[in-house]
Write a structure and sequence with these properties.
alpha+beta; single chain; 7-stranded antiparallel β-sheet; 9 strands; 4 helices; two-stranded antiparallel sheet; 49% strand; globular
Amino acid sequence: MTGLLRGTPFTPKREDVSWLMTERAHGIDALLRYKESGASVKYNGKESQKGLELWVLEMTDKEKRATRYYISMRTGRILWLEYEEAGVKYKRTFHNYRIVQGTLVPYRSVLYEGDRQVEELNVLTVTYGVRMEDSLFAAQAASAAP
C-alpha cells in the first residue's frame, strides 16, 4: 500500500494499514457501501437496551468478518457497532450527529477494546466535493509502479 502526503509518496507502517483496513471493514461506511463490497446484511430483529428501542443489523463481508449495528428506532441513527478481531471484542459508539449537506455525520466516536476505551475520534470539520488535481493521482500511480 502506498500513501501520499503533501505530494510525496510514502509507504505507511503496517499497524497504520491494519487500523485503516479494520476501520474500513467495521465502520458506518462499510454498512452504507455493503452492496459495492459484496457484503451481506441480515436483520436480527429488535432489542431493548438501556431504555432504547433498537433495530439490530448484522453485516458480513466477503472475508467473513461480521459487524453488528445497533440503530435507534426513534432517530434511525447508528448508536454503536460491535465486532470481534483476533478473539478480542470491540465496540464503537457514535455521538453528536450533525447534518452536513443533507448527510448525518457523527462528530465523535469512541472505540472500546473489551471494557477499556482505546480511542476517541473528534471531527472538527466536514467538506464534501473538494476538487483534487488529477496530477496528484498520476504522481502516486507512477511511484507505485514496479
